[in-house]
Amino acid sequence: MATALEQKTGEVGFLGGMKIPSVVRFQTGFMQGLQYANKTLGTSVNLDPTNSIYQGSFENVAAGQQIAAQMYDKGVQTIFCAAGDVGLGAITEAKSRAQAGSSVWIVGVDVDQYADGLYADNQSVILTSAVKKIDNAAYDMIKAELDHNFPGGQTLTFDVHNEGVGLPPNNPNLSNTTLEKVNEVYQKLQSGEITVSAE
What's this model's pTM, rounded to 2 decimal places? Predict the structure, then answer.
């Protein structure tokens, strides 16, 4: 949703590593965020199926750079990367193009990748990142252990309802308006007013 609000129109891309359920969920959520923004917030951003690519690994940096170059050459402005080192290759391509004057972006994954995207004049090609809030999960588990209530043997899900995912605390490349809208929708997700499908 943040990508759609900042870009407003045009093409975006998705670059995945291996096509496994956890990575497909990133793609699915990204697409639903774009669709929500297009439907309710006045954006017109498109993710063409030809710009949704799984490289097949999480290690091939060079392939990530090549795929990103092909997407940018086709007019994609922002690529969401859920691809490990393949995504680092895409970041390298974005930095090269940004240094040459192009307006291209990457959405990072798992952690705040802002520093990975730094180039000239301390600017970054990382628009924002889809963050797994491991710190919150670790805190919850330590607290549960100290309270003698550790949930051993259980599978736990960390999502918006327990602050398990979100954007980084600082997003220098997102406008205040975008952050306000994202926070509004995040609260609606937490309350159940808006739901995200797994498929």
Answer: 0.92
